[in-house]
Structures are given as structure tokens and as C-alpha cells.
Amino acid sequence: MARTAIVIGAGLGGLAAGIALSRVGYEVSVYEKAHELKEVGAGIMLYPNAIGALRKLGAYEAVAAAGSFGRYGRYLSAEGKSLVELDLLEVGLEKEAIAIHRSDLQRALAETLGAEKIHLGMPLKSFDDNGKATAHFADGSFATADLLVGADGLHSVVRKQYVKDGEPRFANCFAWRGVVEGEFVGLPPETGMLIFGAGLQFGAMHIGQGRIYWFGAVADKKGSQGRTSKNDALALFENWAAPIPQLIGATDQDALLTHDLYDRKPIFDWGKGVITLLGDAAHPMVPFMGQGGCQALEDSIALGASLREPPNIASGLRKYENLRKARTANFVNQSRKSMASSMTKLPIACALRDFVLSKIPPKVLLKNLHTLNNYDMPDLG
Ligand SMILES: Cc1cc2nc3c(=O)[nH]c(=O)nc-3n(C[C@H](O)[C@H](O)[C@H](O)COP(=O)(O)OP(=O)(O)OC[C@H]3O[C@@H](n4cnc5c(N)ncnc54)[C@H](O)[C@@H]3O)c2cc1C
Questions:
Q1: I need a labelling partner for 314 at 20 to 30 A (CA). Which of 215, 245, 263, 324 fits?
Q2: What does the domain layout of the chain look like in residue ranges?
Q3: CATH 3.50.50.60: does it fit domain 4-168+263-372?
Q4: pTM to 2 decimals?
Q5: How much is the average pLDDT of 373-378?
Q6: How many whole angstroms separate alpha carbon 191 and alpha carbon 81?
Q7: Any residues with Cβ below 6 Å from ligand 1, and which?
Q8: Closest ligand 1 atom to 292 CA
Q9: Do the Cβ atoms of 67 and 208 come closer than 8 Å?
């Protein structure tokens, strides 16, 4: 009889987990609280490690076709002074970094998994673990399987039921995100830019099909406080170099997203019995290394590989968690450090940051990027 798996959440982690488990022989059902997988979110950058995972999942071609190769990276000061110029082709990373609209990524993963395996409008309320996993949904229905993966994001209901570490911690930062169409001076094709100010950071990149994704991050202990209009964003970035104010100005107000940013301290006990966590449910991190989604994709490969031929399901799940805990904890901590150094408000620290960045040889930064890819990802077989 086929082994069965329940995955809670059809974000990129849950869909990738569903694909990986299907690939190693599980009958998978993914349950998502939203009623449709609609055009949500803005852009996302997928670094070489995520690309490696997408290849193993068999979703790379679809993602590469929908997104944009992030070949050139530019770091600038708020005044528009160039600090770093990178070219990924110099280290042989051709199409190994892809910026894409989240809905395109979600669609590519959902198609790879198969729509019939995704059950929409099914918010999980609770689960039981009696050797088998039973998921109880808000409409009173339930489902039982050999295992359950909580891939239900930052406010995971699965996690809350057995990990007692309270609410996620607010990072004293918030961000706006938008997507625009058109051509903008200062942002040639296949280019991504990162601009640093005092307690402010702005990023923009092509995400394929003529669209550009931008984000503006703000260090503010009080959070966004309802600052959800593009005029709020313009008030902080209007004097920055082109194309920053132009990108904000061209954004459709209804499509502008505002997020307070959170993470959690790493924990080393993700699962119990036939239950485990994956992606942001397990290890949410602030987005200053662009690794939250990439790590969720890596998780999915480790999960599938660990469950391919386990002596029993629970030991396969513990093997998966052991493969992932140290690496993801490192990214949670490094992302916090990266936020602290890049979002500083102190003028002297800002000047030092810009000076140091301008002196780091591009080859060193490119080598760091390349080493992301050297993670020894297991095989799905
Ligand atoms: C501003 C910003 C920029 C970022 N940029 C990057 C980047 O460039 N690169 C990168 O790799 N990462 C980035 N990230 C991080 C990335 O977005 C997350 O790490 C990633 O989306 C996590 O995926 P996930 O599937 O674990 O969770 P989610 O994407 O949150 O998906 C969880 C899913 O579970 C569903 N769900 C929730 N509760 C329930 C329930 N009770 N029952 C059923 N379903 C439920 C939700 O509706 C959702 O579909 C960024 C994050 C932010 C905030």
C-alpha cells in the first residue's frame, strides 16, 4: 500500500515538499487555507542553492522560463554612488540566480505537483498524532495519513500546537513591496540593485515578462503603523537616485504590500512522532539575505531524501530535521546580523558600511554566492 502524506500550506515550501514526497513514492495531499492560489506577493530572488533544489524537483525549466536571470548585481549608496558591480557569468553562474514573481513561482510548483493534489479553502485547526497523523479542518472535516508536514508559514498552526515558544519576534523593521511594468533608467535588463541609506534599504530587480519588483525596507521600532500608501514610501525615498522614486511612483496603489518583519530564534526540536515543520513554520528569518524561500526549497529535498527508505516514518522525519537544523539556524542568525549592519542609522556606521562594501573585491562576493551552491544536497533518487 502506498505511503501517504499531508502537507499543510501551499506556499513555496509546502508545494516543494509535496513534489519531493511524490517523487519518493508518497501519495500527497496539500491543504491550503486560501480559496485560490491567486496573484499574491511581489518578487522573490532565488539564489544558486534554490536553483539546485528546483532542478532536483524538476521545476527548474518552468521557473527559468517565467523569471529573469539575475546576472548583474549593483550595490549603491543612497546618492547613487556605485559601491559594487557583480557579474555572475564571471564565476560561471549562468542562469543560476533567478528573480521571479511569486505567483509565477507558485504556479510552476503547483503545476509540477499536480492541481489534483492541492485542496484549497481548507484551513487547518489542529492535528492528532497517534502513530498516524490526522488533520482537523475548520469545516469539521478531517484527513489521515502516515505523516504531516506543517508548511503553514510564519504563524504556523501546526507549530503552535506543540512548540511553546510564543509569538514570532518583531525585527524593528518593516518593508514595502511593489511590482511595476516598463523600462526605468538605471536598471538595465538582467540587473538587480541594492541601495543603502541610514536605516533604509531599497532593492529592485527584473522578474521576467517586462516586470520589475522593488522593495523598500525601513528600520523603525514602531513598525509600519498603517503606512500602506505609496506616498508613505515616497516620503522616505523621494530624494534617492533614479530609478527609485520613479519605481515607487509607477506602482499601482492597490498592489502595494506592506509587511512588518519577523523571525524566530532557532529551535532544535522541530518535530515529534509523525509530525514535522518546514520552511517559515520551522525557521522564519528576516529577508536581508534573501534566503527564507531558498531554505524552504532546500528543506523539501532533505525531507524527500530522508523519507525515501526510512526504517520507519518518525526516524525518517528526525533524519530530515537533523540534516536541516544547523544550516537553517545559521541563516536565521546571519540574516539578523546582515539586517543590523545594513540597516544601521548611525552616520559613522553608514559611512563605514559603504566604505567597506566599496573595498570588497567583487570576486569575494561572487565566491560567497557560489559557495551557497556547494551545499551537499541529498538526492531524491
Ligand atoms: C519582504 C520580504 C522579502 C523576501 N525576499 C525573499 C527573497 O528574495 N528570497 C527568498 O528566498 N526569500 C525571501 N523572503 C522569504 C520568503 O518569502 C519566505 O521564507 C517563504 O515565502 C516561506 O515559504 P513557506 O512556504 O514556508 O511559507 P509561506 O510562503 O508563508 O506559505 C505558507 C502557506 O500556508 C498557508 N497557511 C497558513 N496557515 C494555514 C492553515 N492553518 N491551514 C492551511 N494553510 C495555511 C498560507 O496561506 C500560505 O499559503 C522574503 C520575505 C519577505 C517578508
A1: 263
A2: 4-168+263-372
A3: yes
A4: 0.96
A5: 77
A6: 16
A7: 8-14, 31-34, 44-45, 123-124, 151-154, 157, 175, 177, 215, 259, 261, 279-281, 287, 290-294, 296
A8: 19
A9: yes
**Partner residues linked to 75 by β-bridges:** 84, 194
Task: Give the residue from 6, 9, 100 showing the smallest Cα distance to 54.
Answer: 100
CA distance 340 to 171: 10
Distance CA 269, CA 50 (A): 24
Which of 280, 300, 327, 328 for a ligand 1 pocket mutation test, highest count of atoms within 8 Å of Cβ? 280
Contacts of 114 (CB under 8 A, 6+ apart): 22
d(CA 220, CA 199): 8
Q: Are strands 191-196 and 275-277 parallel, antiparallel or unpaired?
A: unpaired
Q: How many other CB atoms are there within 10 angstroms of residue 164's CB atom? A: 7
Q: Which amino acid is at 209?
A: Q
Task: Take residue 221 and report the three cell numbers written for it.
Answer: 521600532
Percentage of the chain modeled with pLDDT above 90: 86
pLDDT digits (tens, 9 = 90+) for 19-62: 999 999 999 999 999 999 876 779 999 999 999 999 999 999 99
Could you tell me if 16 and 300 are in contact, meaning their C-beta atoms sit under 8 angstroms apart? yes
Per residue in 283-314, pLDDT (tens digit) is 999 999 999 999 999 999 999 999 998 779 99
Tell me the Cα Rg of the chain: 21
Residue with the smallest CA separation from ligand 1 atom 35 is 9
- For the cut 70, the answer to whether the pLDDT of residue 345 exceeds it is yes
Residue 89's pLDDT band (boundaries 50, 70, 90)?
Answer: confident
Query: Which residue in the block uniquely carries the three cell numbers 546576472?
Result: 71
The rounded percent of the chain whose pLDDT value lies above 70 is 99
User: What is residue 131's three-state secondary structure?
Assistant: coil
Q: What is the largest CA-CA distance in the chain?
A: 65
Report how far residue 369's alpha carbon sits from residue 356's, in angstroms, rounded to the nearest whole number: 18
How far is residue 284's CA from residue 163's CA, in Å, rounded to a whole number? 14
